[in-house]
Amino acid sequence: MCTHERADNPSPFLSRCVSRSLTASFFFYHPTGHQPPQPNTNTNYTAIMMRLALLAALVSAAAGFSSFTPRNLVATNNGSNLSMKIYDWKRRTADESALHEEEFTLGNLRPAPGARKRKNRKGRGISAGQGATCGFGMRGQKSRAGRPTRPGFEGGQQPLYRRLPKFVGRPTGPGHEKEIFNLIKLDDLNGAAEGSTVNFDSLFESSAVTKSKHDIHKVVVGRGDFTAKGVTVQAHAFTKAARDAIEGSGGKCELLSKTTNAVLEA
Question: Treating both helix axes as pointing N-terminal to C-terminal, what angle do 10-25 and 41-65 enclose, rounded to 10 degrees?
Fold first, then answer.
C-alpha cells in the first residue's frame, strides 16, 4: 500500500502510512449512514486498542526519524547538571544556576559563556561585514597602512602633555623635577656627643645610618625620642618640628648647599 514511497526519506513514508492506518481504523460508519454488521463488541474493542498501540508506535518512530526534529541542541557536561546551548554566546541567556553548586576541579574547568569570542576575520568578503576595506573606509589618512598619528596627537590642538605645565598649582610636566631627599631621623642623632657637629658622613662612619641612594639629606622627627644635647646638625633641609627640637635642646641647624655641600646659613 505504501511501497511506492522513497526509502531514503522515511519521515513522509511513515507519515502517510500512519494517516492511512488511521483512516482504516476509524472507518466504522459509512458516509451514507449504513453501519456494517458487528458480530462481537469485545473483539472490535480489542482490535481498536491494538490499532491505537500500533499507531502510537508508528508516530514515535516517525518523530525519531524526522529531519525537522531538533537534535543535538543541548550539550551536557559529564558529571554536572549545568547545561547550555552550543551557540549561546550571550552570558545573560545561559543557564548558570549550577555554577555555585558544583565543585570545580582541573577536569571540569571551562570558560564562561561568551568569554571566548571568535576572532574577527577581516577582508574575507562583503557578507562578513568587514570585507574589502576592512571597516577603515576608502579614503583618508586613517585608511592608510601604518599608524596614522603619533601617540598624544590631538588633531593639531594643544595636546595634554603641553597643557599640564601651564596649569596653576603643583608644577608637573617637562622641565619640572621632584626633589627626593634621604631622610635622617632625630633618634639617629642620639649617639652624638654634646657640642659635636653631625652630618650624614659622620653618621655613616659611626654606623648610625645606612648608605643612601640620594645625595641630599633632610632631617625629620622620626619615631623615637631625641635626647642629644647641644649638637650642630648639618643637612640640606629641615622640617619645622625637627628644627624646633634641635634648637630646643641647645643645638644648632646649619643648612647646606645642594650642589657644593657648603654651609649656607647657621
Answer: 160
pLDDT of residue 70: 46
Distances (CA, A) of 182 to 188, 237, 244, 255, 265: 13, 10, 20, 15, 20
Predicted local confidence at residue 59, as pLDDT: 76
Q: Euclidean distance between the first and final Cα of the chain, in Å?
A: 124
Looking at residue 48, its pLDDT comes to 86
Q: What is the DSSP letter of 229?
A: -
pLDDT of residue 115: 83
Contact (Cβ atoms closer than 8 angstroms) between residue 234 and residue 263: yes
- What is the structure's pLDDT at 121? 87
Residues near 249 by beta carbon (within 8 Å), at least 6 away in sequence: 226, 228, 229, 230, 231
- pLDDT the model gives residue 45: 79
pLDDT (0 to 100) of residue 181: 94
Dihedral angle sign, alpha carbons of residues 24, 26, 29, 32? negative
Place of cell 583618508: 140
Residues of the chain with pLDDT under 70: 1-43, 62-100, 170-176, 266
The gap from C-alpha 145 to its chain's centroid, in whole angstroms, comes to 30
The pLDDT value recorded for residue 168 is 80
Going by C-alpha positions, the residue among 239, 217, 226 that lies closest to residue 188 is 226
Q: Residues 254, 234: contact at Cβ < 8 Å?
A: yes
Contact 113, 89 (CB under 8 A): yes
The one-letter amino acid code at 52 reads L
- Biggest alpha carbon–alpha carbon distance for the chain: 140
Decide if 263 contacts 254 (C-beta within 8 A): yes
Among 152, 172, 175, residue whose Cα is nearest residue 164: 172
